[in-house]
TrEMBL record:
Membrane topology: Multi-pass membrane protein
GO biological process terms, semicolon-separated: proteolysis
Subcellular location, record wording: Membrane
Identification of the protein by name: Membrane associated serine protease, rhomboid family
Single GO molecular function: serine-type endopeptidase activity
Keywords: Hydrolase, Membrane, Protease, Transmembrane, Transmembrane helix
EC code: 3.4.21.-
InterPro entries membership: Peptidase_S54_rhomboid_dom, Rhomboid-like_sf, Rhomboid_protease_S54
GO CC aspect terms: membrane
Amino acid sequence: MIPIHDSIPRVHTPYMLYTIIAVCFGIFLLERLLPVSQLTEFFYVYGVVPARFTDPVWAERMHFPSDAEYVFITHLFIHGGWVHLILNMWFLWIFGDNIEDVMGPLRFLFFYLTCGVVAILINIAFTPTSVTPVIGASGAIAGIMGAYFLLYPHARVLTLIPIVIIPFFFYLPAVFFLLLWVGIQLALGIAALSGHASTSVAWWAHTGGFICGILILPLFRKKNRCYYCKIPEGTPPVRPQLLTPKPSELPPPEE
């Protein structure tokens, strides 16, 4: 289930969104220059290995640095392959511009990083003994999607759903798309705990990031900046000039 386009117009140029995407691509290209052995070490040093924080004896035996808090940020900009990178950046591109619209660049950056940190902490709580490094922006992007769920449930998302080998395209309500997405992450996270789903994906980071984005959104959004957000009356607020009807939309004069 891949989003292709959403119906919410972009108001401001999302400079921070562009910067995050550029940094992720830049780091990934640098990763490609490393030999396989050094790349694996890079993932372990700058990714988040849960056991590194829950089992100090093991971490010391494996010669991990003791002051490793930086990995809660660095892991968000590291990706393991082209598919991992492109899918993450595509989801960020689809949903992130409208969130930066309502926050501005700096608040958007801190919101993004906060969701990423909370997401990985939740993942550690559910997989404390894992010795596999967690890398990728998925937790932070899930937070962006949680904020989108709260602000734009009325949006419509053009969605690609491949069935067998045939691609189908549907316009789905954003509220349905996002609830289905987070529901799948939650179900697979529960299944992974019992060994019935892959443990190579940080399902709990996805779920935790989504919930975090919903909960902390009020701390980061700016007043009077959400031009197309859902409001209690059910009408998305827009800029005043957008309320001016086109001549073709005016009612005919009464005779």
